[in-house]
Task: inverse folding
C-alpha cells in the first residue's frame, strides 16, 4: 500500500447512511478449505436521502454471485476497490443477494471469520464484518439478523449465533444446520458465529421480572473444570445491573464462548460473548487470584455492554468511549461492590497514571473522542477506555448517586435501539440535573492531562483558610493550538490538628466538598478555621489530573495516618515514597552512596505491624511506585538509575524489617484454598499480603527467603502461591533454584495454555533475564507461536513492558529484536503488531543515545513493504 492511499477519517465528515436495512438473512456453509456466505439484505433508501449509489464494504472476499431483486449483476454493474464495492444505480427499495467465498483457515488477523484450534469463530468489532461479506459495515446501520449455519455434524456439533435458535436439523453428507434469530436490531459489529465441538456448562438466572434465562458457557472439553467462576461472576453481574442500574437482561439465552486465539480480552456480541480463554477459564489449580479478579471484571464488563453498547450503541467509531468509558465505569463500580472500593480505586488510578498519562504525553495522544483516525483498531486505547471511564465518574461525582441514576435511566430510555453520540449521554445527565455541561464537553474533545497547582494561605486573625487552584494543560506533539479550561471536580476536605475532618463553612458544615474548578485560577476561602489545617485534595482521585501541592513530609505522614479518605491515605504514602526514590535516583546518577532515610523505614515498619487496616490495603501501602511510573514522571528517564534505586529501597527494607516481614508471612500463611471461603476477598487479601511479604523478604541478599520460597513452591495448594513462589525464585539470583522451579513448573503445566502463559511471562518480565539470548530461547520453544496473541503478549510484550532494564539496554539490541518481530507480525496480525509498537513510541522519554537507537528501528519498520494501516499510522505519528 502506498503512503498516499492511507486516508484519514474525520469526525467532522460524518454523514448519516443513505440506505437502511430492514432485515438480514445469512447462511454460512463451513468446510475444511473455506466457507461460503450467502446474504440476503433488504435495503430501503432513507426518506431524507436521494442517493442513487450504494456503497458496501468488503475486504479479501471472493465474490461468487450478486443480484438485485431477481436481476444478476454483471461486472459492469458495480465497481470494486480495495475496501468495497459501489453499485452506481439502485432502486429505492430492493433485495440484494450475494454469495462470497472466504478462507477462515488462513485468517491469522483474527478479524472476521477465523479458526482458533479446531473451532470456527468470529470477531467483527470494529470492522471485521466486511471480511465476511459485502455490507454497510458501520455501527449506525442496525437491523435484525437471521443466521443459518451448516457444517459437518461430527466435527462441529455445536453451532451458535446471536439470539434464539429457531430451527435445526440434519442435512446430507453427515452435515447439519441450526438457524438463529436475533429479535434486537444491531449493527454488524455485534454479529457472532461459533462452530465447534464444545463442552457446555449450564446455569439459570431468574430476572427481576421472573423470567428464566439460560446461561451457557462453551469451552474446549479439556477445560470443562474451568467454568465455575465465570458462571458465578455472570450471575452476580446480572443481579448487580438490575439492582444498581435497573437493567434486566432481554433474551432467553446468554452464552459465553472461550477461544484461544483472540486479539483482545473479550467481545460483547449480542447474546453470544466471545472471550479470550485467559479472561474466562479458571480453577484454583491453574488460576491466580489476580486472574480470578480479572475474570470477574471482564465477564461483568461484557455483560454490562448488553445495555451500554448493544441496546444503545455508537453512531460512529469516534464515539467509541460512549460504550467503553461508560462500561468500564460500570464494571469498576461492580468490582468495588464485590470486593473493596478503596483497593479497586487504588488499582485503577495507579494504572491510569502509569499507562494512560504516558499515552497522553506521547505521539498517539488523542482526546477521549478523537477527531480523526486512520485505523480505528489503533483507538481501543487507555484514553478511550480508562480516561473515558473517569469522565463518566466525574459526572457521577458532580451529580451524586441519585441524579446520575436518573440520567442513566433517561439515556437508556430515550435512546434504546439507537446509535448515538457522547453528547447524547452528557445531555441526558444535564437534563435530569438542570446543570450546564457545555464546558464539561472539553474533556471529550481535548487531549492531554490537565495539571492543577494548589497553594494555601492561612489568616489566623480572621480564622480564614484559602486555597488557590490554577489549571493548565500542556500542548502535546499531537495537539493543534490552544486549549480551553476544563470543568474539574475536586473533592476536598480540611483536617484539623487532632486528625479529624473540619466542618466546612462553604459546604454547610459537611466534611467533604466537591469544588468545581472552571476558570484558569480560582480561590476558595473557608471561614471559622481555628488553626491552620492540612488540606486533603482530590479525594478518591475525583478528576484525571496531575495535582500538586507543596506538602511537607510531616503533613504527608499526618495524612497517611488520619485522612478519612482511604484513597488519599494511600496517596500520601505514595508521594512520600516518590520523594525518597527520586532523591535516590539523583544520588545514583551522581555516583553518591545511596542512603535510605531511617524515618522511611519506620513508616514501613508501622505499616507492616498495622493490625487494624484491611490486609489488601496494607498490601497496597507496601507497594512501591512501579518503574514504569517513575519513568513516566521523569523528564529524561534513566532506566538503570530507576531500577537500581528501587531495588535498593526494597533490599534496605527487607534487611531492616526482616523479623517483622517473616512474622507477617507466617501470620498469613494459613489460608486453605479448599475451604468454602477460599476465593472470597478476605482470603485473597491474606494470600496477597503473605506473598508481598515473601517478595520483600527476597529483595535482600539473605538466603532465607529462597528457602521459604522453595518450601512454598513445593507445598502450594493453589496457583496464587505457586506462581508467587516461582516468581520470587526466578528473581532471586539463585540460578539453580530458579532453574529447578521453572522446569518442575513446566513439566507439570506445559499442556495448559493459561498456565504456560504465566510460565513465559514470569521469565520474560524478570530483570534476571538480562541478555537477549534468554528471550530468544523462549521464542524458539515449540510452545511459542507467533500466531497466538497471548503468547506474543506473554513473551515479547512482557519483556518490553516489564523488563525495562533489559529492554532499554544501551546496545539497542532489544529495540532491534522488537522491530524484527513487529515486521514479522505485520503480515500476520497487524493489530497485534501495532500494539507492540507502544514502547518504541515513547522514545522522547530517553537519553539521546537511546532516542537515536529507537528512531532507527522506527524508520526500519517504516521502510517495510506493504506495511499495514495499523502499524503505519503509529509509526508515522511517532516519527518526528
Ligand atoms: N469491545 C470489546 C470490549 O471492550 C473489546 C474488543 C474490541 C474486542 C475489538 C475485540 C475487538 O469489551
Ligand atoms: Zn468494552
Result:
Amino acid at each position: 500500500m502506498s503512503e498516499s492511499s492511507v486516508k484519514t477519517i474525520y469526525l467532522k465528515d460524518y454523514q448519516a447512511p443513505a440506505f437502511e436495512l430492514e432485515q438480514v438473512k445469512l447462511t454460512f456453509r463451513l468446510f475444511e478449505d473455506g466457507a461460503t456466505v450467502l446474504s440476503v439484505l433488504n435495503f430501503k433508501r432513507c426518506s431524507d436521502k436521494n442517493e442513487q449509489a450504494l456503497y458496501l464494504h468488503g475486504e479479501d472476499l471472493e465474490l461468487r454471485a450478486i443480484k438485485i431483486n431477481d436481476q444478476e449483476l454483471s461486472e459492469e454493474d458495480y465497481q470494486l476497490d480495495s475496501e468495497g464495492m459501489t453499485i452506481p444505480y439502485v432502486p429505492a427499495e430492493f433485495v440484494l443477494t450475494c454469495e462470497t467465498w472466504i478462507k477462515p483457515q488462513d485468517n491469522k488477523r483474527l478479524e472476521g471469520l477465523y479458526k482458533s484450534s479446531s473451532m470456527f469463530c468470529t470477531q467483527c468489532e470494529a470492522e471485521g464484518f466486511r471480511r465476511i461479506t459485502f455490507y454497510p459495515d458501520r455501527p449506525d446501520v442496525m437491523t435484525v439478523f437471521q443466521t443459518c449455519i451448516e457444517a459437518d455434524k461430527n466435527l462441529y456439533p455445536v453451532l451458535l449465533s446471536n439470539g434464539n435458535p429457531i430451527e435445526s436439523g440434519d442435512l446430507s453428507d453427515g452435515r447439519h444446520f441450526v438457524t438463529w434469530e436475533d429479535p434486537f436490531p444491531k449493527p454488524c459489529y455485534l454479529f457472532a458465529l461459533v462452530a465447534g465441538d464444545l463442552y457446555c456448562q449450564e446455569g439459570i438466572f431468574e430476572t427481576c421480572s421472573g423470567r428464566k434465562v439460560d446461561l451457557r458457557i462453551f469451552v474446549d472439553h479439556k477445560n470443562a473444570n474451568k467454568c465455575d467462576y465465570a458462571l458465578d461472576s455472570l450471575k452476580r453481574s446480572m443481579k448487580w445491573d438490575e439492582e444498581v442500574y435497573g437493567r434486566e437482561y432481554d433474551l432467553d439465552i446468554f452464552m459465553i464462548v472461550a477461544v484461544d486465539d483472540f486479539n483482545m480480552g473479550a467481545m460483547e456480541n449480542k447474546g453470544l460473548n466471545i472471550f479470550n480463554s485467559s479472561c474466562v477459564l479458571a480453577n484454583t489449580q491453574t488460576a491466580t487470584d489476580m486472574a480470578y479478579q480479572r475474570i470477574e471484571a471482564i465477564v461483568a464488563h461484557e455483560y454490562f455492554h448488553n445495555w451500554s453498547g448493544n441496546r444503545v450503541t455508537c453512531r460512529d467509531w469516534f464515539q467509541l468511549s460512549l460504550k467503553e468509558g461508560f462500561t468500564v465505569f460500570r464494571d469498576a463500580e461492580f468490582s468495588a461492590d464485590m470486593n473493596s472500593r478503596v483497593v479497586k480505586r487504588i488499582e485503577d488510578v495507579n494504572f491510569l497514571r502509569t499507562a494512560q498519562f504516558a499515552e497522553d504525553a506521547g505521539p498517539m495522544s488523542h482526546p477521549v473522542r478523537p477527531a480523526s483516525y486512520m485505523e480505528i483498531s489503533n483507538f481501543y486505547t487507555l484514553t478511550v477506555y480508562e480516561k473515558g471511564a473517569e469522565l463518566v465518574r466525574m459526572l457521577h461525582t458532580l451529580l451524586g448517586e441519585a441524579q446520575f441514576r436518573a440520567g442513566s435511566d433517561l439515556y437508556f430510555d430515550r435512546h434504546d435501539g439507537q446509535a448515538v453520540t457522547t453528547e447524547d449521554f452528557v445531555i441526558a445527565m444535564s437534563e435530569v440535573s438542570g446543570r450546564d455541561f457545555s464546558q464539561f464537553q472539553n474533556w471529550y474533545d481535548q487531549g492531554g492531562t490537565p495539571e492543577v497547582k494548589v497553594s494555601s494561605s492561612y489568616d489566623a486573625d480572621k480564622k480564614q483558610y484559602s486555597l488557590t487552584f490554577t489549571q493548565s494543560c500542556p500542548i502535546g506533539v499531537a495537539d493543534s493550538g490552544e486549549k480551553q479550561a476544563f470543568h474539574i471536580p475536586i473533592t476536598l476536605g480540611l483536617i484539623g490538628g487532632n486528625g479529624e475532618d473540619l466542618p466546612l463553612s462553604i459546604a454547610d458544615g459537611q466534611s467533604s466538598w466537591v469544588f468545581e474548578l472552571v476558570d484558569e485560577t480560582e480561590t476558595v476561602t473557608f471561614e471559622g478555621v481555628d488553626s491552620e489545617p492540612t488540606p486533603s485534595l482530590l479525594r478518591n482521585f475525583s478528576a484525571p489530573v496531575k495535582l500538586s501541592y507543596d506538602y511537607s513530609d510531616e503533613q504527608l505522614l499526618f495524612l497517611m495516618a488520619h485522612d478519612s479518605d482511604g484513597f488519599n491515605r494511600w496517596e500520601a504514602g505514595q508521594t512520600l515514597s516518590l520523594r525518597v526514590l527520586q532523591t535516590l535516583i539523583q544520588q545514583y546518577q551522581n555516583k553518591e552512596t545511596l542512603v535510605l532515610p531511617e524515618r522511611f523505614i519506620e513508616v514501613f515498619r508501622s505499616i507492616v505491624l498495622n493490625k487494624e487496616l484491611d490486609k489488601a490495603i496494607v498490601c497496597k501501602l507496601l507497594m512501591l511506585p512501579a518503574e514504569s511510573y517513575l519513568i513516566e514522571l521523569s523528564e529524561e528517564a534513566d532506566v538503570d538509575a530507576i531500577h537500581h534505586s528501587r531495588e535498593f529501597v526494597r533490599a534496605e527494607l527487607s534487611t531492616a524489617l526482616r523479623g517483622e516481614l517473616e512474622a507477617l508471612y507466617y501470620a498469613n500463611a494459613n489460608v486453605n484454598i479448599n475451604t468454602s471461603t477460599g476465593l472470597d476477598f478476605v482470603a485473597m487479601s491474606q494470600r496477597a499480603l503473605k506473598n508481598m511479604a515473601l517478595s520483600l523478604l527476597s529483595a535482600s541478599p539473605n538466603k532465607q527467603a529462597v528457602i521459604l520460597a522453595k518450601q512454598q513452591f513445593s507445598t502450594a495448594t493453589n496457583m496464587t502461591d505457586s506462581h508467587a513462589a516461582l516468581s520470587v525464585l526466578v528473581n532471586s539470583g539463585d540460578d539453580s533454584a530458579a532453574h529447578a522451579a521453572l522446569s518442575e513448573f513446566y513439566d507439570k503445566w506445559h499442556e495448559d495454555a493459561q498456565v504456560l502463559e504465566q510460565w513465559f511471562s514470569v521469565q520474560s518480565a524478570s530483570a534476571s533475564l538480562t541478555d537477549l539470548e534468554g528471550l530468544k530461547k523462549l521464542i524458539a520453544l515449540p510452545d511459542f507461536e507467533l500466531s497466538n496473541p497471548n503468547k506474543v503478549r506473554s513473551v515479547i510484550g512482557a519483556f518490553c513492558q516489564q523488563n525495562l532494564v533489559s529492554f532499554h539496554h544501551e546496545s539497542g539490541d532489544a529495540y532491534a529484536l522488537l522491530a524484527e518481530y513487529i515486521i514479522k507480525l505485520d503480515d500476520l496480525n497487524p493489530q497485534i503488531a501495532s500494539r507492540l509498537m507502544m514502547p518504541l513510541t515513547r522514545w522522547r522519554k530517553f537519553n539521546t543515545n537511546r532516542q537515536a537507537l529507537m528512531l532507527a528501528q522506527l524508520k526500519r519498520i517504516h521502510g517495510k513493504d506493504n506495511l499495514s494501516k495499523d502499524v503505519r499510522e503509529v509509526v508515522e505519528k511517532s516519527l518526528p
